[in-house]
Amino acid sequence: MASWRCLELARGVGTSILFREAAALGSLKWKRTATAAGASQITNCLHSVASNSKREPRPVKTRVMTQERGSGETQTTADKYEAVIGIETHVQLGTSTKAFCSCPSEYGSEPNANVCPVCMGLPGALPVLNAAVVESGVKLGLALQANIALKSKFDRKQYFYPDLPKGYQISQFDIPIAEKGYIDVDLPVEFGGGHRRFGVTRVHMEEDAGKLIHAGNDRLSGSSSSQVDLNRAGVPLLEVVSEPEMRTGLEAAEYAAELQRMVRYLGISNGNMQEGSMRCDVNISIRPKGREQFGTKVEIKNMNSFSAMQKAIEFEMDRQIALLEEGERIKQETRLWEEGSQQTISMRSKEGLADYRYFPEPDLPEVVLSQEYIDTTRANLPELPDAKRRRYESLGLSMQDTLVLANDSDVSLFIEIYPMFYSLQIIPKPIEILLLAGNIK
């Protein structure tokens, strides 16, 4: 409770701090810290978050075989292989209306309350593009240092599913809004730290499908019936496709966490994985170290946290290595992560591009942007997480402090505006905050 009171004090000066990870721990500790922008006067209640929320390495469940090397050393089975990991991330945009109609884009509404002939796919209904979707796509593309297309278009992606009433999804295929970018990641200090740069293949705009609710079970298997909620149908998405440059579950989880920070800093999405506002599909294959050719790709879905993503990848790496060691073939398929059993299970065979039968969307014109519009959007971008971390480092902060402070834009804003409010006597000095919080150690 004391930790929440600390955060409420910050909220009282106009900063909405929702550092859920810290609050869930319930053990925020305060100490005096020299911070950026003259904030050496303020106490830092978030320093213990990084140490208390460390990810513990997942133990390897599969059989680990060894073989003798010429020098007398042994080599484990895992040492013979490396993973090739890419991530497709769907970011649900925080627009007030859907992508192609005026229905509200709200989470938690009554089922099928936010629907109209357009998002229900009724005959004769025509889509109209929401300009805020394009603006969000340009912002994210610029933040990823990607090339923004002055002309892009929408396409129809054909596939049948009960929660897709039109029988196709409006997406972008060969000319996306942005492509060839990258994202910079600082790995946690407790795992050795280090800096990584991962390429981003493309960012494209599309609409979401509806949602199936399976009665009696969390998934289709074992359910007595299924119901369709079309509130989510037509909600705008940005799909971010990474290059297959990650090699461990930790790198993949940190890439996704950095992308979440980026969309929150930009203000285009809340990025909440629990609500489905950010969904990550992981593509993973295994190959012997030193080989350039990729192995058979397996897609993993249904991961609603970064720790689940890391565990799912590590399980799948173990599973695929065990199959290769036993001389079996890896099937190209989509698998689901089951949190309860801590394993992936087969869902369906993986579709290929030809199955989608893409063709240009005839009901929407091209998206045409001017260079002036792009330059204006770039000039109005906020300071992004990586730039903030570099600035904090230049001020002499340790990497541990830097990662904690820059993790949340509201937290870093409070840290930086505190001296101004303190000097104006709008908020109390640090020792009074400690007394009010009742959290002095």
TrEMBL record:
<dbReference type="InterPro" id="IPR006075">
    <property type="entry name" value="Asn/Gln-tRNA_Trfase_suB/E_cat"/>
</dbReference>
<feature type="domain" description="Aspartyl/Glutamyl-tRNA(Gln) amidotransferase subunit B/E catalytic">
    <location>
        <begin position="84"/>
        <end position="374"/>
    </location>
</feature>
<dbReference type="GO" id="GO:0050567">
    <property type="term" value="F:glutaminyl-tRNA synthase (glutamine-hydrolyzing) activity"/>
</dbReference>
<dbReference type="Pfam" id="PF02934">
    <property type="entry name" value="GatB_N"/>
</dbReference>
<comment type="similarity">
    <text>Belongs to the GatB/GatE family. GatB subfamily.</text>
</comment>
<keyword id="KW-0067">ATP-binding</keyword>
<dbReference type="GO" id="GO:0005739">
    <property type="term" value="C:mitochondrion"/>
</dbReference>
<keyword id="KW-0648">Protein biosynthesis</keyword>
<comment type="subunit">
    <text>Subunit of the heterotrimeric GatCAB amidotransferase (AdT) complex, composed of A, B and C subunits.</text>
</comment>
<dbReference type="InterPro" id="IPR017959">
    <property type="entry name" value="Asn/Gln-tRNA_amidoTrfase_suB/E"/>
</dbReference>
<dbReference type="GO" id="GO:0005524">
    <property type="term" value="F:ATP binding"/>
</dbReference>
<dbReference type="GO" id="GO:0032543">
    <property type="term" value="P:mitochondrial translation"/>
</dbReference>
<dbReference type="GO" id="GO:0070681">
    <property type="term" value="P:glutaminyl-tRNAGln biosynthesis via transamidation"/>
</dbReference>
<keyword id="KW-0496">Mitochondrion</keyword>
<dbReference type="InterPro" id="IPR014746">
    <property type="entry name" value="Gln_synth/guanido_kin_cat_dom"/>
</dbReference>
<feature type="compositionally biased region" description="Polar residues">
    <location>
        <begin position="64"/>
        <end position="76"/>
    </location>
</feature>
<dbReference type="GO" id="GO:0009507">
    <property type="term" value="C:chloroplast"/>
</dbReference>
<dbReference type="InterPro" id="IPR004413">
    <property type="entry name" value="GatB"/>
</dbReference>
<keyword id="KW-0436">Ligase</keyword>
<protein>
    <recommendedName>
        <fullName>Glutamyl-tRNA(Gln) amidotransferase subunit B, chloroplastic/mitochondrial</fullName>
        <ecNumber>6.3.5.-</ecNumber>
    </recommendedName>
</protein>
<dbReference type="GO" id="GO:0030956">
    <property type="term" value="C:glutamyl-tRNA(Gln) amidotransferase complex"/>
</dbReference>
<feature type="region of interest" description="Disordered">
    <location>
        <begin position="48"/>
        <end position="76"/>
    </location>
</feature>
<keyword id="KW-0547">Nucleotide-binding</keyword>
<dbReference type="InterPro" id="IPR017958">
    <property type="entry name" value="Gln-tRNA_amidoTrfase_suB_CS"/>
</dbReference>
<keyword id="KW-0934">Plastid</keyword>
<comment type="function">
    <text>Allows the formation of correctly charged Gln-tRNA(Gln) through the transamidation of misacylated Glu-tRNA(Gln) in chloroplasts and mitochondria. The reaction takes place in the presence of glutamine and ATP through an activated gamma-phospho-Glu-tRNA(Gln).</text>
</comment>
<keyword id="KW-0150">Chloroplast</keyword>
